[in-house]
Write a structure and sequence with these properties.
Elements lengths: L1 E5 L3 H9 L5 E3 L2 H6 L5 H14 L3 E5 L5 H14 L3 E6 L2 H12 L4 E6 L2 H9 L4 E4 L1 H6 L4 H15 L4 E4 L5 H10 L3 E4 L1 H6 L4 H14 L3
Parallel strand pairs: 1-2, 1-8, 2-3, 3-4, 4-5, 5-6, 6-7, 7-8
The protein binds SN-glycerol-3-phosphate (G3P).
SN-glycerol-3-phosphate (G3P) binds next to helix 7.
Length: 216
C-alpha cells in the first residue's frame, strides 16, 4: 500500500517526506484554504512547491463544477508539473471530465466517493484513483472500511486498473484496516502516520535497553 499525506502544509509534507516512506500528496480546497493559499498564481506556486518536495503523485483539485470549466482548469493544473493528478468531484459533469482527461492522457483522482456505485462509474470513466472518504462514512453511521473491501472485490472481479485511494483517514487504526482491506493507497494526516510508530511496550522496552546499555 502506498502512503500519501493529506495536507497542503509544506512543513508537514517535508516532515513526512523525510521519513522516506512517502509516495505522494493529496490536497483539497479546504486544506489549501487552511494554508492561506489564494488566487490562481499562488495556488499554482503552492502545487509547484509541493512537487519539489515529493517525487510522487500530487492531487490538485478543480474548483469548478461544469464540464467545460473543469477541463480548462484541469489542463492548467496538469501543466504545472508531470506529477500533478487532477482531482475531480463525483458529479455527472465530473465523470464526463474524467473521461475527457483519460482520453487526453491526463491522470485523475475522483473525489467524494461514498458508495461502490460511484466508484464503479469513476473506474469506468478511467480515473487513475478513486477516493472513498472513510472517516466521513464512519461519522455518518456506516462502515468506511467495509466500502474499501467491497470496492477491492469489485475492482478485482472486473479487472479495473483504477487505484483505490482511501481518504478521510482519522487515525492509525484506519491505516491498518485499509491495508488489510486491500486499499492501493492511503492518504493520511501526518498525525495518523506518526501514530503508527507508537506502542507503549516499545517505549518501556527501549528505556530498559538504554538503562542496561549503561552496564555494558
Ligand atoms: O482529501 C479529502 C479527505 O481526506 C478529507 O478528509 O478528514 O476532511 O474527512 P476529512
Amino acid at each position: 500500500m502506498k502512503f500519501f499525506i493529506d495536507t497542503g502544509n509544506l512543513a508537514q509534507i517535508k516532515e513526512a517526506s523525510e521519513l522516506g516512506i512517502l509516495d505522494g500528496v493529496t490536497t483539497n480546497p479546504s486544506l489549501m484554504a487552511k494554508e492561506g493559499v489564494k488566487g490562481e498564481a499562488a495556488i499554482a506556486q503552492h502545487y509547484k512547491a509541493i512537487c519539489e518536495i515529493v517525487d510522487g503523485d500530487i492531487s490538485a483539485e478543480v474548483l469548478s463544477t461544469d464540464f467545460e470549466s473543469m477541463v480548462e482548469e484541469g489542463k492548467k493544473l496538469a501543466a504545472i508539473h508531470p506529477n500533478i493528478v487532477v482531482k475531480v468531484p463525483m458529479i455527472k459533469d465530473g465523470i464526463k471530465a474524467i473521461k475527457w482527461f483519460t482520453d487526453n492522457g491526463i491522470r485523475t483522482n475522483c473525489t467524494l466517493i461514498f458508495s461502490a456505485g460511484q466508484a464503479i462509474l469513476a473506474a469506468k470513466a478511467g480515473a487513475t484513483y478513486v477516493s472513498p472518504f472513510i472517516g466521513r462514512i464512519d461519522d455518518s453511521g456506516w462502515d468506511g472500511i467495509e466500502l474499501i473491501r467491497q470496492m477491492r472485490l469489485i475492482f478485482d472481479i472486473q479487472g479495473y486498473k483504477t487505484e483505490i485511494l482511501a481518504a478521510s483517514i482519522r487515525n492509525a487504526l484506519h491505516i491498518i484496516k485499509c491495508a488489510e482491506a486491500g486499499a492501493d493507497v492511503c492518504t493520511c494526516p501526518l498525525d495518523s502516520i506518526l501514530g503508527l510508530l507508537k506502542h507503549p511496550l516499545t517505549d518501556i522496552g527501549l528505556a530498559k535497553f538504554l538503562e542496561d546499555a549503561k552496564k555494558m
